[in-house]
């Protein structure tokens, strides 16, 4: 019995170890030195043979003679010492191999393998302690290596979809991804980018294939940084020197920006990897359609966008064109990168500090769309001739750097360069819808990296932005400070959110009718512990460009809801607050779902929250905006258009979008005077909005004359420093505790809104439908909006025309109320007319005689809630318009 059990035990262990060795050697392919390999493979064989010999010839060495289920002390010690020693060695070998192979993608195989000796020792110890005849550790380790084999197989399949050179996905992943977004019906949110390296064969011929591989790797790293990171989509190496990407992009403007950032990032990695020549890429992109079309058609459309670069690559031997731009005949970027460094050193030896000027053609893409790529080529040739005509000194070096950029090295004085750039801009402006702008960098010595000098010029040029009044910008402290601030924002933003350095400040919104605070706007404010207050214009735009703005918007929304909840718990009035969201949020997350998730968490009714969106979103994402407005309205939110009139305004847009309120841009109030044209524009906006049933709010109110004018024309709400500065959360809570009548009761909001619908720029006694149909009437009639409170009359509104009527009676009292109520008979007459038209849809008319003059009054009921409001107009034969 003892011999039989020992023999069965040894044989089962022997076959388990053989399976381990087969998996270890054939599947995992451990690459050790020969000596290490012999030890790794030899030790388990030796252990198994020893077990087998003992089982056949000396079973009493394994099992106790007294207890057939117990091991002998000798075998227990040997059984543990040999696996422990073997396990220690194997663990060291696998850990060492994991370390030395950490960069080639094999390190994780060895790390997984290193658990083998640990398992073997642990289960061996359990086996001895339990004195069981089953080879537990062999079974456990066999199971482990079976799992390891499957793990390696799965990893190999997964890594087969990864390009080994760049680490990007391959074309099969791209096809699957495009099929998925078509199935989900969201393809129209994506753009397809095609990126092709220009002159890979020439790079291989001139510098060797290692340089070519490094160039491909640099492009892959740049695409991963710019397109893959932070964007929803996929980037792949399609084959050879060609890359494809499918990512979410809001519009062509953002796509252009991503292309530019990619080129900058390629230059960055070229410097890090010390490439002999920075790789240049041709790019094309298309907006994916909603309906599925063949992949070949998509690629054909994207390829057509790279027409100019493709033509240069197809013409003749690439090596012959390596330093020459085929379209303009100028030297190209390869020439610049290879020889500009020597030029700078030569000039430095002569104590000269050349200017590096980067020219950018504004509107190139739209020009290509209008006139075709052949027309675009002709334009490039024309501009290259213009530049050569102005910069034709012996030492001037002009190159076509990228598709719509030229780079110039010149030793002329900076003042002369500025004059020439202005002249070039005027000449180019004569062309059809084309402009030019330039960034200038003054070199310091011959040791500067040439690519870095172009980057400095580009930074200066980008600071111009959309300012059409500036055609050049010189790199200096202003530019450096801007990018220092930009880097600070990007590096510290998330930590500032976590530390609570970014908070909402609250600015009151005043109802013109009553002078009470109707709501507050939440304004993001960043107070850094070291730098102090950082103005919003120094971080909002940067966060939008980096696609991080949704993190800020959602955090401000969360803090707003938290404040409202705290007010409710403290027994304070819950303030109505409007919160801004950026158009970029639409593609960064499901903004509606995120907003609703936060509101639900804090249990704040949606009537206390208003959502503000910038007017520019109408241009950038009209379809998404319509859908989001509809979703938010269904959830009970009001939607306000922010900065109406800031540059994208189209009255036609308002009929397509269901906005509840327009915030009139404060730019209309600049240089506000009694006879300014701003008054006409604002009046027309208010009149139009009233007819469309949209409320209006004018921001930036700084003085009483502006406020009086806005109330006069019927603008419902006002906001600005005239009324109050923005408040911190604690200050707002303190204010709410003692606000009293300063704060509008939310239960009266609908009542006041009904009154505010009166269009005082037309005949207010007409019904709303009649006012909407009387386009252009805008009559100047004496009118007032009054409220009946029992037997008392309160005046909400009166215009200048009514003042003139009263002056005709000789009444020159300080307030309108005193003038109207000079005699009890007037109040009695008005109260009688109010009773007559109370609750009626139509206006009523009556005559009144005072001071020998007869006045005709026409009155219409507006609304009732405990009190009742009316509007009336006054006419008299003595009144002259």
Short summary of the structure?
By secondary structure, this protein is of the alpha/beta class. Helix 1 (2-27) packs antiparallel against helix 2, helix 5 packs antiparallel against helix 6 and helix 14 packs across helix 15 (414-429).
Q: What is this structure's SSE topology?
A:
Layout: H1 2-27, H2 34-57, H3 73-100, H4 107-113, H5 115-130, H6 136-159, H7 171-184, E1 190-198, H8 200-207, H9 209-228, E2 233-239, E3 242-248, H10 252-272, E4 280-287, H11 295-304, H12 307-314, H13 333-349, E5 355-362, H14 364-390, E6 397-402, E7 405-410, H15 414-429, E8 435-442, H16 450-464, E9 472-474, H17 477-499, E10 502-511, E11 517-528, E12 532-534, H18 540-545, H19 549-569, E13 577-581, H20 585-588, H21 591-602, E14 609-614, H22 617-620, H23 622-634, E15 638-644, E16 661-664, H24 677-692, E17 695-699, H25 704-713, E18 717-719, H26 729-738, H27 749-756, H28 768-773, E19 783-789, E20 792-798, H29 800-808, H30 816-820, H31 824-837, E21 844-850, E22 853-865, E23 867-876
Parallel strand pairs: 8-9, 11-13, 13-14, 14-15, 15-16, 16-17, 17-18
Antiparallel strand pairs: 1-3, 1-4, 2-3, 5-7, 5-8, 6-7, 10-11, 10-18, 11-12, 19-20, 19-23, 21-22, 22-23
Descriptive notes:
By secondary structure, the chain is α/β, with parallel strands linked by helices. Helix content is 50%, strand content 18%. The protein is built from 31 helices and 23 strands. It has an eight-stranded mixed β-barrel, surrounded by five helices. The chain starts with a helix and ends in a 5-residue tail after the last strand.
